[in-house]
Amino acid sequence: MKDVIKDLAEAMTAAEPEARFEVRYWDGTGFKIGEDPEFVLIFNTRRALSRVISDAFMGFGESYMAGEIEVEGDIKKLFYLGFKIDFAERPMSLMLRLKLAIHFLIARNTLARARDNISFSYDIGNDFYELLLGPGMIYTCAYFNSPDDSLDQAQWNKMELICQKLRLQPGEHIADLGCGWGGFLMHAAEHHGVTGVGFTISAEQRDYAIRKIAARGLSDKIEIRLTDAREADGIYDKVASIGMLEHMGNAQIPPVFERIAKILKPRGLALVHTIGNDMERPIDPWIDKYIFPGTQASPLTTMVQSAADNGLETVDLENLRLHYPPTVAYWMQNFDANIDRITEMYDETFVRSFRLYLEVASSSFSWGDNRLYHMLMTKGLRNDLPMTRAHLVPTTFRQGPNDTQ
Q1: Pairing outcome for strands 195-200 and 222-226
Q2: What is the count of structural domains for the chain?
Q3: Is the pLDDT of residue 164 over 70?
Q4: One GO molecular function term (predicted)?
Q5: Would you say 88 and 317 are in contact if contact means Cβ atoms under 8 Å apart?
Q6: CA–CA distance, 275 with 321 (Å, rounded to integer)
Q7: 93 in helix, strand or coil?
Q8: Each residue of 189-207: pLDDT tens digit?
Q9: 22 with 41: CB under 8 angstroms?
């Protein structure tokens, strides 16, 4: 079995001749590639080695969660080399493939199943997400006008950028599909004078958002409904969906765009902010099982086609991939700063799994297939929209008393 790992290491060095790392086994043996290793991959058990060989990243992830694999040094360097040789694409054992096939069938984001999937990820305690995300409670990619932007600044930038792209005007009525803890709606109401309805299927998110909205004196402007986005009702001047679509899976993309078209006024604008891929990729089995059941980063072509099929013209498309790693870096800082409390709240397995998820997420945007798209659409043709992005001015954090409450 050790020969397989040596072969993988040689493939990594062929793909990246400057690679420097070390591998150690439970019995004291191992090998080193180059001088001054950037990371050390440690197999604490024979079982962990077997799992990685037979089940690729699923085996790595589960072994890491159990403490049977350790990585000293920069784990992102390991993932970088993994992406260079397409390690995640290695075939898994027949038994695991059968188990995952059953899991994928159960976890599909049908209307009946979606609420359980979202509850698994988001109803684990708002106190945890406050530690991870900070007081703003925004769990989507931020927007950095400068590498020196704080997380609050960058999240404010992102919400303001979306407001500008949607050309929000005072008095408009907007919808937020998959509204999270209500941060975007509160920003839009306070800074652009709109009213709005948010749709979520997380009970904890809804309760939290309602309390925050009341505390900021916005209860007469914003409503939060415990309703699946595919069943959103009402008619709106503008529609936003920020970080929801990646939870849906490819089969559910058309129904979402159908619903956007149904609730959007003629000539209205809609913006989708979502993780996606340039082309269709397999579902990540470890992420699907342990972090976000039912999730799938859909190909851009599926989203654009679904929009067109429902009379939505894509008028602006932007890839904000490079903004994701610095966003995750802030989340990781918050996570590590609160590690003792998080461990007390959950357990060591949760801590190891969530840290692994954050590291994988950052690496997948730096070197993998993940992208972060902004799709701006109109319902019907519009000839009065700006022909360039010159109207999108760089945002400056105009923090008011409520912006980070």
Answers
A1: parallel
A2: 2
A3: yes
A4: methyltransferase activity
A5: no
A6: 9
A7: coil
A8: 999 999 999 999 999 999 9
A9: yes
Q: Give how far Cα 247 sits from Cα of 28, 107, 252, 294, Å.
A: 43, 11, 9, 6
| Rounded Cα–Cα distance for residues 269 and 214 (Å) | 28
Going by DSSP bridges, is the β-strand pair 173-177/236-242 parallel, antiparallel, or unpaired? parallel
**Secondary structure element (H or E) that encloses residue 313, with its range:** strand 312-319
138, 155 Cβ separation under 8 angstroms: yes
pLDDT higher than 60, residue 209: yes
Are residues 42 and 161 both part of a single domain? no
Domain match, 81 and 133 both: no
186: in domain: yes
CA–CA separation, 180 and 169 (whole Å): 23
Q: Are 107 and 117 in contact (CB under 8 A)?
A: yes
CA distance 360 to 349: 16
**Dist CA 197 CA 234 (whole Å):** 9
Cα→Cα distances 17→14, 33, 34, 71, 84, Å: 6, 10, 9, 21, 11
Within a domain: 359: yes
- One domain, residues 25 and 67: yes
With CA atoms as reference, report the closest residue to 240 among 140, 109, 375, 372: 375
The answer on 59 and 190 residing in a single domain is no
Task: Calculate ∠ Cα 171-176-182, nearest 5°.
Answer: 95
Q: Are strands 298-299 and 264-277 parallel, antiparallel or unpaired?
A: parallel
pTM value? 0.89
Query: What contacts 262, CB < 8 A, 6 or more positions away?
Result: none
> Once rounded to an integer, what is the mean pLDDT over residues 179-189?
97
Q: Do residues 374 and 272 touch, judged by C-beta distance below 8 A?
A: yes
Could you give the 3-state DSSP secondary structure of residue 312?
strand
Q: Token digits for 189?
A: 């109401």
User: Using alpha carbons only, how large is the chain's radius of gyration in Å?
Assistant: 22
What's the CA gap between 377 and 213, in Å, rounded? 28
The conformational region for residue 170 under phi > 0 = left, psi -120 to 50 = alpha, else beta, is beta
